[in-house]
Amino acid sequence: MYMKEIQIIGIGVINRTGNTIEEIWNCLTGTTAVKKTAGKTQYSSVLPSRRLRRMNRYSDMAVYVSYKALDDADIAADSLDPYRIGTIFSTGYGPMESNLTFAGMVLDKDPDLCSPTVFANTVSNACIGHICMNLGCKGVSTIVMGSNSVGYAQMLLDKGDADYILSGAVEEYHEELYQCFKQNPYSANVDIAEAAVGFLLTSEKRKDAYCRLIDFVECDLGAYPLTGGMEETDIKPVETALRRFLDQCDLPVDAVFSAGNASWFDTCESEMLRRVLGGGVVYVDGLKNYVGETLGSSLSLSIAVAALCLKNQKIPEKLAEAGKEGAAVKTILATGYDVTGNYVAYLLAGRE
User: Fold this and answer.
1) CB 296 within 8 A of CB 90
2) d(CA 62, CA 273)
């Protein structure tokens, strides 16, 4: 085992399946149909209008899930040492709406007359700034582009750089970007959706935690599966690294949430996972039939649903393989990849 085990004690979320963790669980365990329509998810901001005037929707989504993660953990930010609360988020494409709006302003008129508010919101880490200003967080803080924010947060908590970290991902819907994916032969059949996810992580033990983050492994695929192909042999280093990682963790895997999203890569990953894990494991390949492929938020959203399953000690019938409905689980491996072609497998375990 490489690092100290970290607990997920609060989760906030925006997704078409629900804007609370309870709504998502009810969607996955109930009979409610999910509309597979691309577009912006409706949610109600937690901020007053006077504060919203200076931020874009991308930043507001990040603030929303951070507030909700704290509420879910029943912790008030002002009750904690602000210098010991970190903020580590990730995104795949950042504030595309603001970037193109500002670019249009530059093209249409004198750049000196462009809105400074719009310009300030074109940077990807603006969302982190708004989280810190609205919640009073003054600890370790950054946004990582197309990377594993949860893993980085776990590393910082392991080093003792914070007591709590708000971590997760935000990916805002942008019509032009989504149309580009639809026109690409590698992703034409992929159901793209938006999402933001926030976790409150801590190394402190809590009996009401969702689960424990054990550790993770990362490997380079050499290509982003949604925009380009790769050789079949490129999965071999991932398989080798995953075997070594699971041997070192020395925990049996009860279920795996794959990165499956109806792309060509699904078969490649599925075959690799089955070679490594063998039988007796619940293979969840259809999560994105409900939540959608949420790009930079995909891994975080898979971790959120896996954490829910561990807390409730079962896989919902909608997600489980035939004959394994309601299967009890104590450990889950959640996988995903980002826009840089980085493949991540994260091992989670139930509360001790």
Assistant:
1) yes
2) 32
pLDDT at 37: 67
Q: Please list the ranges in the chain whose pLDDT falls under 50.
A: 1
Separation between Cα atoms, residue 195 and residue 89, nearest integer Å:
13
Length of the chain: 352
Token representation of residue 191: 């159901």
Question: pLDDT digits over 137-161, tens only?
Answer: 999 999 998 789 999 999 999 999 9
Nearest to 315 by CA among 300, 292, 334, 296: 334
> Could you give the domains of the chain?
6-202 (3.40.47.10), 214-349 (3.40.47.10)
Question: What DSSP state is assigned to residue 75?
Answer: -
Q: Is the dihedral of CA 232, 234, 240, 246 positive or negative?
A: negative
Q: In sequence order, what DSSP letters do the residues of 258-312 get, joined into one string?
A: ---SSSTHHHHHHHHHHHHH-SSSEEE--THHHH-B-GGGHHHHHHHHHHHHHHH
pLDDT value at residue 2? 57
- Cα 246 to the center of its chain, rounded Å: 22
Q: What angle do CA 88, 286, 324 make, to 5 degrees?
A: 115
What would the two tokens of residue 166 be? 């708000």
Q: What's the confidence (pLDDT) of residue 103?
A: 76
Which tens digit of pLDDT belongs to each residue from 321-339?
A: 766 666 679 999 999 999 9
The pLDDT, as a whole number, for residue 35 is: 65
211: nearest Cα among 251, 177, 173, 260: 251
Enter the pTM of the model: 0.94
Residue 185 DSSP class: T
Q: Which pLDDT score, from 0 to 100, does residue 317 have?
A: 84
